[in-house]
Write a structure and sequence with these properties.
Blueprint: H1 2-8, H2 18-35, H3 45-55
Helix pairs in contact: 1-2
Length: 67
Amino acid sequence: MIEICRDHAANVKRWRDGQMVLRWIAAGMTEARRQIRRVNGHLHLPGLRLALDATIPTVTPAKEDAA
Protein backbone atom coordinates (compact mmCIF):
# COMPACT_ATOMS: atom_id res chain seq x y z
CA MET A 1 0.00 0.00 0.00
CA ILE A 2 2.84 2.40 0.82
CA GLU A 3 4.44 1.84 -2.56
CA ILE A 4 1.15 2.45 -4.38
CA CYS A 5 0.61 5.71 -2.43
CA ARG A 6 4.16 6.78 -3.22
CA ASP A 7 3.70 6.06 -6.94
CA HIS A 8 0.33 7.80 -6.96
CA ALA A 9 1.77 11.00 -5.48
CA ALA A 10 5.07 10.93 -7.40
CA ASN A 11 3.98 13.57 -9.93
CA VAL A 12 3.23 16.23 -7.31
CA LYS A 13 5.96 18.86 -7.60
CA ARG A 14 4.88 21.22 -4.83
CA TRP A 15 3.18 20.19 -1.61
CA ARG A 16 1.19 23.18 -0.37
CA ASP A 17 -0.08 22.08 3.05
CA GLY A 18 -0.91 19.10 5.22
CA GLN A 19 -4.44 18.84 3.85
CA MET A 20 -3.08 18.37 0.34
CA VAL A 21 -0.83 15.57 1.59
CA LEU A 22 -3.79 13.88 3.29
CA ARG A 23 -5.90 14.11 0.14
CA TRP A 24 -3.19 12.53 -2.01
CA ILE A 25 -2.57 9.78 0.55
CA ALA A 26 -6.31 9.07 0.72
CA ALA A 27 -6.45 8.88 -3.08
CA GLY A 28 -3.46 6.50 -3.08
CA MET A 29 -5.05 4.31 -0.43
CA THR A 30 -8.27 4.17 -2.45
CA GLU A 31 -6.23 3.02 -5.44
CA ALA A 32 -4.38 0.44 -3.31
CA ARG A 33 -7.65 -0.95 -1.95
CA ARG A 34 -8.56 -2.11 -5.44
CA GLN A 35 -5.31 -4.06 -5.75
CA ILE A 36 -5.18 -5.73 -2.32
CA ARG A 37 -6.26 -9.35 -2.39
CA ARG A 38 -7.13 -11.79 0.33
CA VAL A 39 -4.87 -14.65 1.32
CA ASN A 40 -5.48 -17.78 -0.75
CA GLY A 41 -7.56 -20.24 1.24
CA HIS A 42 -8.82 -17.69 3.75
CA LEU A 43 -12.22 -19.39 3.79
CA HIS A 44 -10.60 -22.60 5.08
CA LEU A 45 -8.93 -20.98 8.12
CA PRO A 46 -11.78 -21.71 10.59
CA GLY A 47 -11.72 -25.40 9.59
CA LEU A 48 -7.96 -25.49 10.01
CA ARG A 49 -8.33 -24.00 13.48
CA LEU A 50 -10.87 -26.66 14.47
CA ALA A 51 -8.64 -29.44 13.11
CA LEU A 52 -5.62 -28.12 15.01
CA ASP A 53 -7.60 -27.77 18.23
CA ALA A 54 -8.82 -31.36 17.87
CA THR A 55 -5.34 -32.72 17.12
CA ILE A 56 -3.07 -30.78 19.43
CA PRO A 57 -3.78 -31.17 23.16
CA THR A 58 -4.03 -28.03 25.22
CA VAL A 59 -1.24 -27.67 27.73
CA THR A 60 -2.07 -25.97 30.99
CA PRO A 61 0.77 -24.52 33.05
CA ALA A 62 1.57 -26.28 36.31
CA LYS A 63 0.49 -24.43 39.43
CA GLU A 64 3.18 -23.73 41.99
CA ASP A 65 2.48 -24.88 45.52
CA ALA A 66 2.15 -22.00 47.97
CA ALA A 67 4.49 -23.22 50.70
